[in-house]
């Protein structure tokens, strides 16, 4: 979250009480007071509670808190959405920044075609889509908010593929037969269908 702070000029993403950047979860979640000011959860916990109300540290306006205390105050969802969008865009940028020129050259040397465009050479692997992508197609095919959350790694860091069942290639091999008669044959691995 520190990177968000350094990239924000007017510090709208930080609590004006403690100067820490708001968080999507935990004690730095932004909560709304009745007056409209936003304070992080941790700072609200430190404010004195008088007659089931807390006073805004900026304009002293009272905000009633019920039996659930500070936890019952509404989260500032507009600010949370902004934080989430910034985090998503920074994660997308980080994928490309991580790929230095030398690394890109090394990944291209593998000679794997991009699954989106055969004319391109892949340098990334999406672990969720299980697809090989070049930098351009990675950005365009993962531009939506949901797909931007997919984990993309350099091809050289691609997870090993699980072996497939020889009898049912559509299924991964999940079991190994330990019977003596299976050890002499070439197919000791099997899927859940073959297991029984």
TrEMBL record:
Top EC category: transferase
InterPro entries: E3_ubiquitin-ligase_RING, Znf-RING_euk, Znf_B-box, Znf_C2H2_type, Znf_RING, Znf_RING/FYVE/PHD, Znf_RING_CS
EC number(s) given by UniProt: 2.3.2.27
Residue ranges constituting the B box-type domain according to the UniProt record: 109-155
Pathway recorded for this protein: Protein modification; protein ubiquitination
Catalytic activity from the UniProt record: S-ubiquitinyl-[E2 ubiquitin-conjugating enzyme]-L-cysteine + [acceptor protein]-L-lysine = [E2 ubiquitin-conjugating enzyme]-L-cysteine + N(6)-ubiquitinyl-[acceptor protein]-L-lysine
RING-type domain residues: 15-60
Domain C2H2-type: 132-159
SUPFAM superfamilies: RING/U-box
Keyword list, A-Z: GTP-binding, Metal-binding, Nucleotide-binding, Transferase, Ubl conjugation pathway, Zinc, Zinc-finger
Domain of life: Eukaryota
Gene Ontology terms, MF aspect: GTP binding; ubiquitin protein ligase activity; zinc ion binding
CDD domains attached to this UniProt entry: Bbox2_TRIM23_C-IX_rpt1, Bbox2_TRIM23_C-IX_rpt2
Family to which this protein belongs: In the C-terminal section; belongs to the small GTPase superfamily. Arf family.
Name of the protein: RING-type E3 ubiquitin transferase
